[in-house]
Specification:
The chain has about 325 residues and is α/β, with parallel strands linked by helices. The protein has helices spanning about 15-30, 45, 80-85, 105-115, 130-135, 145-165, 200-210, 225-240, 280-295, 310-330, and strands at about 5, 35, 90-95, 95-100, 125, 165-170, 175-180, 195, 215-220, 250-260, 275-280, 295-300. It contains 10 helices and 12 strands. β1 (about 5), α1 and β2 form a beta-alpha-beta unit.
Length: about 325
């Protein structure tokens, strides 16, 4: 198991210096990668718990974001080239880029440029988004009903631009003749593409096989959920008789993380389970179980509020130096 940092650009209050301190530590500790979070807006109705859908369209979560509308946070995408300049070892990416907020051709070309800026260290996470209020703020309300198709077309356009000197595309969301888009990415054949936690195993398997996807990113997945999902997903990949296997994919999950002095309630409660929020002993055991279930790279997600970055820095050192060796030895 390797570690990835989910940089807390989305929290009630964060500074550039704090993001830089966390980034520097991830580099020092040889984390695999650093990811940012894609959030365009926090609607004011969220503060009243009146979003149209619960967080991430997951029924256990409230119809409210964990950061207030007046919170002082940073956009995730502009941090990607900043991370390319600030790091030399860690891979970088945004989890998950909501494609309906971006022009597919522009997105693909900008990724290629950042891949050069980072000397070939870009991961590309793509998903459909879930919050109608955010689609409205991004001038993309008309795409909400067709957001999943937009993801597919974006992937097709990215792959076409990244692997051809000239490329044309004639689809619903982009329609252009043969064109050049500048430098192709350094990574061959293209940067690895991660999909979000799409829960239909048959559709996920087809998408992996068709588009040569490299990874899957969930959120707060328990070992039991992960085992059930990966078993069904793997079975569907086998049915396709393709060269792709679950064993070849990076399996990640965004997990809230804080090391506590006192034990936390570890009762299984789906997405609300304290997977990586607990004592060092509890976190060690949970990571061992997650590893056994098939997780290869947890995305370590610092708290949205109340825990200072200085505490998170200490927790990350303990996680890397004391907990991870026990996990990998198990």
């Amino acid at each position: 198991m390797k570690l990835a940092l989910y940089l807390p650009n989305f929290r009630d209050h964060v500074t550039v210096q704090e993001l830089e301190d966390l980034t520097d530590l991830a580099e020092e500790l040889d984390f695999d990668s650093i990811w940012t979070l894609d959030r365009i807006v926090v609607p004011e109705v969220s503060d009243r718990g009146e979003l149209q859908y619960p967080f991430g369209m997951m029924e256990q979560f409230p119809t409210q974001l964990p950061v207030s509308a007046r919170g002082q946070w940073f956009q995730g995408w502009p941090l990607i080239p900043w991370l390319a300049a600030k790091t030399s070892k860690c891979r970088i990416g945004m989890s998950i880029t909501d494609t309906p907020y971006r022009s597919p051709g522009v997105f693909a070309a900008e990724i290629a440029t950042v891949d050069h800026l980072s000397n070939g260290r870009v991961n590309v996470g793509v998903g459909s988004g879930w919050m109608p209020e955010e689609f409205a703020a991004a001038s993309a309300s008309h795409l909400f009903p067709k957001r999943h198709k937009h993801v597919r077309e974006t992937i097709e356009i990215c792959l076409g631009i990244w692997t051809n000197d000239l490329f044309e595309y004639h689809g619903e969301f982009a329609d252009f003749g043969p064109s050049g888009f500048g430098h192709k990415p350094l990574q061959d054949p293209h940067p690895p593409i991660f999909m979000s936690g799409l829960r239909n195993p048959a559709i996920s398997a087809k998408r992996v096989a068709q588009y040569n996807l490299s990874g899957w990113i969930g959120i707060q997945d328990t070992p039991e959920e992960l085992t059930e999902w990966l078993t069904a997903f793997g079975d569907e990949l086998d049915k396709l008789d393709s060269s792709h296997s679950v064993d070849d994919m990076e399996i990640s999950s965004m997990c809230w993380f804080v090391i506590t002095d006192e034990p936390t309630d570890q009762t299984r409660n789906g997405k609300l389970t304290n997977l990586l929020a607990g004592t060092a002993e509890q976190i060690t055991q949970n990571l061992i179980e997650l590893k056994a279930a098939g997780m290869t790279m947890p995305l370590i997600w610092p708290p949205f509020a109340d825990v200072p970055v200085s505490k998170t820095l200490d927790d990350l050192r303990q996680l890397n130096d004391e907990i991870l060796p026990q996990v990998n030895a198990a």
